[in-house]
Please model this.
Amino acid sequence: MFVPSTFVAALVMTILSTICWGSFANTFKLTKDYRFELYYWDYAAGIFLISVVLAFTMGSYGGGDSAFLANLRSAAPMNLLYAAIGGFIFNIANVLLIAGIEIAGLAVAFPIAIGIALVEGVVLSYVLQPKGSAGLLGAGVAMAVLAVILIGKAYGAMRTGAGSVSRKGVTVCVVSGVLMGTFAPFVTRAMTAANPLTPYTVAVLFTFGAVICCFFFNIYLMKHPIVGEPVTFAGYRSAKASYHLLGLIGGAIWGVGTVFNFVAASLVGVAISYAIGQASPMVAALWGVFAWHEFRGAPKAAKLYLVGMFLAYVLSLVLIARAYQAG
Model:
């Protein structure tokens, strides 16, 4: 299988994973009046299918015991379960994050949900797999959290006449963040316990767990949505073919980022790879600035927050890179 042999190669893969994680939502923005619960079915299929494709290509390159099918047969059953549980938890957290954004807005959802997930995921993963300097990694995570907070401040500066944030919105964001930070330790366990999984096998089981989750959580939300009226599969069947394609493409983009993140983690450790990957809101903000023009006519304060966000993220990357080299 293909794995990075140098830290630079692993760093490039984690940055690419950040770009993918921060870009997939553009496909949903290209749909109009289409509910996220319906889009999510094609999205979930996309993340699973691309992980299978990469497992049989990059993950089987060179053959041997580490090839996908060989690893799948030899891995401990509990590790397969750990990876699937991680995907199941991620799926719930991701849907709740979208709901949190719809209820409370990006200014609240990003700092709360991603901030909690970033700190919790890195700490728990580092406890299970202590790679790199804890001090420098902690400083890098702190700068990444600062960058996420500044994103929230930037979007918040554009809100005029906004009322108080609902308690429901905050609660949804907190639950999303706690769950989002929980999936990384399961991935760490699956990749480090006896008879471990390769990153490609983890990705297949992880995305399979996310698909299975849809048949429970997504169907429940279609009937009892957090935001909006209930929807049925009739809306999915009547959707444009282009909307289904966009969902598959969105899932494939996110899935590539996930596989790359897991593959990079095989060299640098899950804590470091996860810390860089979870900075994806910075990429989403870039799309908002340059593609969707969300900050056109924004007040000076919002633009200053954006500049501060980018500087904090660059410093975060430098500190996390140094954490690996000093470890």
Q: What stands out?
A: The radius of gyration is 19 Å. The chain has one domain: 7-326.
